[in-house]
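Sample log: C-X-C motif chemokine 10-like.
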Amino acid sequence: MNSTSSIFLLLLSCLLVLCVQGEPSTGSRKCKCLNGYIGRVRPELLKSEPRVYQPSSFCPELEIIIVLGTKEKCVNPESRFGQHVLSR
């Protein structure tokens, strides 16, 4: 192998490592809200700020996740509370 081939293989290996590091873990390659939405939300029971996930190549849906008690729940983005969260 000559030095040009060695440099090319080294460069190719580095690029491959960089590409793989940018990939998300297998657990995040799908939508988070697969089991439906909760009905009504009492804002005083929220434990933290709602998290909004915009549509992406991994999940085409807009998702809003809140924490009630110790559980994460999904909110319908088209509901009154969902619209309130999105308008902030």
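Observation: The first strand starts at residue 51 and ends at 53.
Observation: The chain has a mean pLDDT of 80.
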